[in-house]
Specification:
The protein has four helices and no strands. The chain is mostly helical. The protein has one domain (6-127).
Length: 128
């Protein structure tokens, strides 16, 4: 396993925040060509903040395997969202893409937490 220093938690969180916000903007405003209003920006910011906090927590608590799994879910989730946006899916592509991204990201987060709990239990059993 690799070690991530705690001092990188804030920069990693900020990068994930900015990247998530930018990807939402690119997907909704540029690909779907939907006009954005204040509520859209607020929703993008809140969701991006949550993703940034989650990623920063993985780094801060040195949960490197969980961080990798979460990042993998992040990449796959946004990839599937953009794919759904490009395909169009007869008017449902925007809704399907957003739900699909959140579902895959949630699966990645849950898997990361479960794997880290299993690793923690294994470490405790080995010490005993």
């Amino acid at each position: 396993m690799f070690q991530i220093k705690k001092k990188f938690a804030l920069p990693v969180g900020v990068v994930f925040f900015l990247l998530t916000f930018a990807l939402f903007y690119i997907g909704v405003a540029l690909i779907l060509q939907n006009p954005l209003v204040l509520e859209n920006y607020l929703a993008f910011a809140v969701f991006s903040l949550l993703v940034g906090i989650i990623s920063a927590c993985f780094v801060f608590f040195n949960l490197s395997i969980g961080f990798l799994i979460f990042t993998l879910g992040y990449v796959i989730g946004f990839g599937s969202m953009f794919y759904a946006f490009y395909e169009g899916m007869t008017g449902w592509g925007d809704l399907i893409g957003l739900i699909q991204m959140m579902f895959i990201l949630g699966i990645g987060l849950a898997t990361a937490v479960i794997v880290e709990i299993i690793l923690l239990v294994i470490k405790k059993v080995k010490k005993a």
